[in-house]
């Protein structure tokens, strides 16, 4: 058969031009766990331009030499890849300036150091790896005349959550737009950089067999699970103010929902895709007080086997009302999806780490296989995002033998089958895209505000839920019982749960 497209991995994406990356919060959790290891892998793979430097700006007082120790220890702890470039050469590119985020005058040191390190036209990429409360202050300071007039090409990368609600996100956006042009703003949601997440669109729009079925006529319901087995780690302060909705649902889970539900874009241009996703966020049915009570479940983890309850974690109030779990039933009120429930659940300290989308199709219209098998297992399409990276489809076939028993079988595509591929992880991919100026996998402000419009009523409702009911799930379980009931009530169950064994076969 003719090969349609020869993939030349030597032409993989490269950061095309030299740059200075300025990380605000360079000694924080995100930098240590994700940014530094990602940069090191890109460096080891020779995917970064040789003329790059990193300036870290942060509050802990330390020298550049001490900061380079932080970089080494981050790589020791979190770097798990095979490729290992020259570590000393790599750490030698890191520089540290200690300062408070509001200290206007210290920002001049950033510019001076950048000038010392690089030639004239080197781009400045500001990365805000800091809690959202500091974002406005840093952006305002980046708007100081001496920085704006320095003439360097520049970009800003902003981490989620963008604001804490619709209003603050709008305000933050106004501030950012006073300093940067829209095309200089990279709002990162690392889920969009995951290979399996990008594959959702390829799978949907690259196969003519699914798209005709991808609607209310054939799909019974959709489940999205973003379960984590870890707790909040060292992020008590952040998490107390965020909770699961701001941390995971308003961004990662909403993006997954939009990719499943959106219409085909006219082409793969960043704005065309973002336009289609925006329509989905805007079509998610808003809920009144009664709907919120019926369709949402709030959870907070208690103790588990040698595991602390959320309320016992560092920097967490002992009567904290913060949710570490949520489940909910949503509807996308458009022509394609009218009446199809989207069940989502996300949480910390659940049984296992698994992110997946499960699409269950309707039962065939006639039951031809006799009484015993009146309820044949429905067709189900599973898109496993992580840790497994696979897509599998459950069909029914005849069980061999003389009787008429239908039997579920599975067709599967696993990423492992592809052998070597250009497997950058999400942060690596997004850092490269930003350096190259490709906005496709970054969020746009109107989309973010529309996602807050979904999340805000949930947060307001959860704030009112009586704290005495918490904690309401054991660490290492699948969350509160009510999350199971949410589906049982509709005659359905979560694909992975304790009470729905047969579904696990998909
Ligand atoms: C982050 C959240 O955005 O995503 C964390 O702030 C969470 O709380 C993480 O642990 C999960 O990301 P991943 O890629 O491990 O699923």
TrEMBL record:
Pfam families: G6PD_C, G6PD_N. HAMAP family: G6PD. GO terms for molecular function: glucose-6-phosphate dehydrogenase activity; NADP binding. Its EC number is 1.1.1.49. It catalyses: D-glucose 6-phosphate + NADP(+) = 6-phospho-D-glucono-1,5-lactone + NADPH + H(+). This is Glucose-6-phosphate 1-dehydrogenase. One of its GO terms (biological process) is pentose-phosphate shunt, oxidative branch. The active site is at residue 252. Keywords: Carbohydrate metabolism, Glucose metabolism, NADP, Oxidoreductase.
């Amino acid at each position: 058969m003719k090969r349609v497209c020869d993939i030349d991995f030597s032409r993989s994406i490269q950061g095309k031009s030299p740059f200075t990356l300025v990380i605000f919060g360079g000694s924080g959790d995100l930098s240590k766990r994700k940014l530094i290891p990602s940069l090191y892998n890109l460096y080891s793979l020779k995917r970064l331009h040789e003329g790059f430097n990193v300036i870290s700006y942060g509050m802990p007082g330390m020298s550049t030499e001490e900061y380079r120790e932080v970089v080494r220890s981050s790589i020791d702890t979190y770097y798990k890849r095979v490729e290992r470039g020259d570590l000393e050469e790599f750490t030698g590119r890191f520089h540290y300036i200690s300062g408070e985020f509001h200290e206007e005058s210290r920002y001049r040191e950033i510019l001076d150091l950048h000038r010392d390190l690089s030639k004239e036209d080197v781009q400045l990429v500001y990365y805000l790896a800091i809690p959202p409360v500091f974002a406005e202050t840093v952006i305002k300071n980046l708007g100081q005349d001496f920085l704006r007039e320095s003439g360097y090409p520049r970009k800003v990368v902003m981490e989620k959550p963008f604001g804490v609600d619709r209003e603050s996100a709008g305000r933050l956006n106004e501030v950012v737009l006073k300093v940067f042009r829209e095309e200089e703003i990279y709002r990162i949601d690392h889920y969009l950089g995951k290979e399996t997440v990008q594959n959702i669109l390829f799978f949907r729009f690259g196969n003519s067999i699914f798209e005709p079925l991808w609607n209310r006529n054939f799909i019974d319901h959709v489940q999205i699970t973003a379960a984590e087995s870890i707790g909040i780690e060292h992020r008590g302060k952040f998490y107390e103010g965020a909770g699961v909705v701001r941390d995971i649902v308003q961004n990662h889970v909403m993006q997954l929902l939009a990719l499943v539900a959106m219409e085909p874009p006219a082409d793969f241009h960043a704005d065309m895709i973002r336009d289609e996703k925006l329509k989905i966020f805007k079509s998610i049915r808003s809920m009144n007080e009664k709907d919120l009570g019926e369709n949402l479940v709030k959870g907070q983890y208690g103790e588990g086997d040698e595991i602390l309850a959320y309320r016992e974690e560092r920097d967490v109030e002992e009567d904290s009302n913060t949710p570490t779990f949520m489940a909910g039933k949503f509807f996308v009120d458009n022509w394609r999806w009218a009446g199809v429930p989207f069940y989502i659940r996300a949480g910390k300290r659940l049984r296992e780490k698994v992110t997946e989308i499960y699409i269950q199709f309707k039962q065939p219209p006639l039951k031809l296989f006799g009484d015993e098998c009146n309820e044949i297992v429905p067709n189900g399409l599973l898109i496993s995002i992580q840790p497994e990276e696979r897509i599998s489809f459950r069909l029914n076939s005849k069980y061999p033998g003389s009787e008429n028993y239908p039997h579920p079988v599975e067709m599967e595509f696993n990423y492992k089958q592809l052998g070597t591929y250009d497997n950058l992880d999400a942060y690596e991919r997004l850092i490269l895209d930003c350096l190259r100026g490709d906005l496709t996998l970054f969020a746009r402000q109107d989309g973010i505000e529309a996602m807050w419009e979904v999340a805000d009523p949930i947060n307001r409702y959860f704030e009112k839920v009586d704290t005495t009911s918490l904690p309401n799930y054991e660490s290492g379980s699948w969350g509160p019982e009510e999350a199971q009931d949410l589906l049982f009530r509709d005659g359905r169950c979560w694909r992975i749960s304790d009470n729905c064994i047969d579904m696990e076969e998909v």
